[in-house]
Amino acid sequence: MRVEDLPVDERIKKVILRRGIKELYPPQAEALKSGVLEGKNLVLAIPTASGKTLVSEIVMVSRLLSEGGKAVYLVPLKALAEEKYREFRAWESLGLKVAATTGDYDSTEEWLGRYDIVVATAEKFDSLLRHGASWIGDVKLVVADEVHLIGSYDRGATLEMILSHMLDKAQILALSATVGNAEELAGWLNASLVMSDWRPVELRKGVFHLGELVWEDGKREHYPENWESLVVDAVKKGKQALVFVNTRRSAEKEAVSLSSRISKLLTKPGTRGLKELADSIRDTPTGERLKTVLRGGVAFHHAGLSREERTLIENAFREGLIRVVTATPTLSAGVNLPAFRVIIRDTKRYSGFGWTDIPVLEIQQMMGRAGRPGYDRVGEAIIVARTRDPEELMKRYIHGKPEKLFSMLANENAFRSQILALITNFGVHNFRELIRFLERTFYFHQRKDTSTIEYKAKEVVYFLIENEFIDMDTEDEFIALPFGKRTSQLYIDPLTAKRFRDAFPKLERNPNPFGIFQLIASTPDMATLNAKKRELEDYLDTAYELEGELYTEIPYEDYRFQGFAGTVKTAKVLLDWINEVPEQRIYESYGIDPGDFRRLIELADWLMYSLIELYRLFNPKKEVIECLRSLHLRLRHGIREELLELVSLPGIGRKRARALYNSGFRTKEDIKRAKVGDLLRVEGIGMGVIENLARYFGLEPPRRVKERKRKTLDDFLG
């Protein structure tokens, strides 16, 4: 189908034509003929890079221009939300307004009511539903990107419940990689189904074993025995390669090994560009390792990197500067980063139950990254048979079908949280109404078993009543209690809330940072650090030393103690952070990567806020509230107590506040009265910061003073 022949507003066609797209891919054309432009629900299950996003854009913009209202585009990751937000802003030329929202689970975000297209993570939109944001009634279309993640243990239940809420209230467009039971998913959503294996770039798939590469059509090629020769070969051809491994350590190790080989193939301009890129990376233990491999044209990519580092790598790879990326599987789902050749080194990974096969769906997602539309006629995806039978890998992953999706409402934690939300935030009045709603879910659609769902729901309801999240009246009608309603709005597990409430009496008697941080770390919502075996004795000593500050008992059973030691380790990291221990030292002392550290701080910040909000419900003591709020601010900024006043100023964070304090500027009044020249002598303070401070104090912007550059020791001493 030609773009000019699309049955949509002419303005939409012009925007698409300006992108250089004149004709739609076959599955795109089939999707747009399915009735989706007339408002019918659609499940679109096609391979990576086959144009799912463009279909969603055409459907969203066509609906908004003809009917008004709003469209919500759901993504699984923050990085994807940012990517889609940048893409969709092209439609602002037609007068549509685009926004993205991913954080703060305790807000209705009423400002989003001014926007037409809202990009959100599933968790964020779920929290908006719980808060009853007024603009949600205007949502005419929900696009669920990566809808196959409904089968994800961690986040599948959230996406399933969103779609259950929005069924019959808004049109649903579900985008997916090919899955084993797409028909079942479409049946649940009362949707048309468009499935296709068509790709814009032909995909060759094969298995490599001891120097022999066998393609799915039986053709064979021979290389040196080590699989790294496949990477070197791609770079020699002027192409790029993605290598998927199963652990962070492997990603870094293979990047080091490949870097020494790829560096010999780089051009002089490429080498210069890579050196500049490496020099821009921060000096952290992980950053130092990254700098080393970058100079050789290789990068590793995993969740331990900071967001800035991941973005730098992704952009440099797209531009062709980085030739090879070694990555953990998160990259295959999280970022649009195709390469000519994809090499999958590992098809097993370690879980809490030992080594398990990576699902076919995930391996096929990785393989789908092979081939760049517009650059390659063919993409190559190669699985390495290191310890497994090559024929078995060919049968399972090359010729095999992806697994079926199963509802994750069977996940007890997710089910408990969603039942509470239905009763406290969505007006489910009694058990009959609760079951009636649960019968709308994919969980029920798959099982058709009312008795099982009733049994599971009763167990949760008893738990919620017993722990005073809800109550029931004499007519067996639910009563949403303040504790339950606030727990659901805060988007935390009821078990987390229970643990907080149980600790309040001890916390009131002895509010202290270590006890509070260990309490937060012990909740199911916290990503607690693992304590290694060699560290257990040290953390036991710490627990004994600070036992009077804990709100929980020290467990002595082996199976419980290692988890407890992890909470002590996490609490110590947070203590170091608020005592202004340099980040680099924290990374080195605890063996933590920057990305993990940032997520730890963000989670702790949210749980600290939730702790305060729940404590306010139970006749709080003023001095305890003040102590908790002070600690929360220290946690957010990573500062000692004496810097609290300074970090409330615009542009003043952890490092600048300490530099000002050490230079004698210890209060807002000190800074307000200071001379510009004196402030400029403080490390990290420039004219931009000073102008912001002047505006904050309502003063005239100061005359620009030439900022002194400090480059050498002579400059400091001169």
Please write out the topology.
Layout: H1 10-18, H2 26-32, E1 42-45, H3 52-67, E2 70-75, H4 78-88, E3 98-101, E4 117-121, H5 122-131, E5 139-144, H6 156-166, E6 171-176, H7 182-188, E7 192-195, E8 202-209, E9 212-215, E10 220-222, H8 228-236, E11 241-244, H9 248-262, H10 268-279, H11 285-294, E12 298-301, H12 307-318, E13 324-327, H13 330-334, E14 341-344, E15 348-351, E16 354-357, H14 360-367, E17 378-384, H15 390-398, H16 412-424, H17 431-438, H18 442-447, H19 450-466, E18 470-472, E19 478-480, H20 482-489, H21 494-509, H22 513-521, H23 536-545, H24 558-578, H25 583-590, H26 594-615, H27 622-637, H28 654-662, H29 668-673, H30 676-680, H31 687-697, H32 713-717
Parallel strand pairs: 1-6, 1-7, 2-4, 2-5, 3-4, 5-6, 8-17, 11-13, 11-14, 12-13, 14-17
Antiparallel strand pairs: 8-9, 9-10, 15-16, 18-19
Helix pairs in contact: 5-6, 9-11, 10-11, 16-19, 16-20, 17-19, 21-22, 21-26, 22-24, 22-26, 23-24, 26-27
Task: Please describe what this structure looks like.
It is a single chain. This protein has 718 residues and is of the alpha/beta class. The protein folds into five domains: 3-195, Rossmann fold, CATH 3.40.50.300; 202-398, P-loop containing nucleotide triphosphate hydrolases (Rossmann fold, 3-Layer(aba) Sandwich), CATH 3.40.50.300; 413-471, Arc Repressor Mutant, subunit A, CATH 1.10.10; 494-638, Orthogonal Bundle (Sec63 N-terminal domain-like fold); 646-717, DNA polymerase, domain 1. It contains 32 helices and 19 strands. The chain has an eight-stranded mixed beta sheet with strand order 10-9-8-17-14-11-13-12, with helices on both faces. Helix 16 packs across helix 19 and helix 22 (513-521) packs across helix 24. The model is unreliable at 707-718 (pLDDT under 50).
